[in-house]
Amino acid sequence: MTEKLKVRATSKLILEAALPLYHSTLQQQYINAIDFSETNRFFYELKRRYPQIIEIVLLRKFGIRHFINERMNAHPVQQAIILGAGLDPLSLYLLENYPQLWKIIEVDNGDIAEKKAIYDRILPQQTLIHFAPCDITDTPLLRSFLAHSGYAPGQPAIIVFEGIIHYIPSSAFLDVMQLFRTPGHHNQVMLDYCLAGEDVPLACRPLHEGVLDILAANLPAPLKVYSRRQINAFLQELHAASVEREPLHLTEKKRGLKPIQFKADGEGIIELLNFYI
Predict the structure, then answer these.
(1) Mean pLDDT value across the chain
(2) pLDDT tens for residues 227-276?
(3) Which of 117, 150, 199, 230 is buried most, with the most CB atoms less than 10 Å from its CB?
(4) Per DSSP, what are the bridge partners of residue 195?
(5) Confidence band for 39, pLDDT divided at 50, 70 and 90
């Protein structure tokens, strides 16, 4: 019997929240290789006090996939780069749904060897997905790993930056994005960011502040939050084009489930963003 991979409480929360999206055969095989028994007080306390966090994580992942679907249907894309890939099986979803992709590169510095081992068990013959064990904030090393993995700067790419910007300095985010800038803006970046309180409606601030407080007490550092004004400044510095900001209530409408939990801009702690560089 193959031993399952135990995951940390934060990873467990994210994977469990997104389970409704993991319905294909390959993704189910991957999830079945994960041991969800590990837990702690933080995991239960967050879900008990703020059950909305499950919907927020699910909508974040659904929103990123929806952006991908829109891009793949509208434009030819040959490669996908998943930065800070974590344990999410997004590359399996890409593999199953977009045969035109000839390269998928997952970048992370935690659990990536264990994740690769699971992929090798369920897809022993696949050659499309490449793994780069790298801290994404080490941009010289990241550049080297991307080249080694076959990233082609001259070809259109999707750059997935989900769940990352709130853990790293803004300067590191900008440095990473510089690696993917192109003269013709043919790379599309998809990410989420945690809203600063000034952009959150007063009625929603208890949820917003409460979740951030619990996370700050249980993570090595508080999550970084950004106002829309700050995000716009980053986009200007990157000379981003075709910018689309998506508040979570719009993502929820796209998902089409009822009852609706988020009804206005600023509700739901995070917002999604995609742009071309």
Answers:
(1) 92
(2) 999 999 999 999 999 999 999 999 999 999 888 899 999 999 999 999 99
(3) 199
(4) 226
(5) low
| Cβ atoms < 10 Å from Cβ of 251 | 24
Is residue 103 within 8 A of residue 130, CB to CB? The reply is: yes
Residue 94 structure tokens: 């890409």
C-alpha closest to that of 156 among 127, 107, 189: 189
> Which residues neighbour 181 within 8 Å (Cβ) at sequence distance 6 or greater?
187, 238, 239, 277
* H helix runs in the chain, sequence order: 9-17, 25-32, 41-49, 52-74, 90-97, 112-122, 139-149, 170-178, 205-218, 228-237, 248-255
pLDDT digits (tens, 9 = 90+) for 190-224: 999 999 999 999 999 999 999 999 989 888 889 99
Task: Please check the confidence at residue 1 and state whether its pLDDT lies above 60.
Answer: no
Single-letter amino acid, residue 171: S
Question: What's the rounded Cα separation, in Å, for the pair 162 and 192?
Answer: 6
8 Å CB contact between 207 and 50: yes
Closest CA to 270 of 56, 52, 48: 56
Token pair for residue 96?
């199953």
Asked if residue 170 lies in contact with residue 196, where contact means CB atoms within 8 angstroms, the answer is no
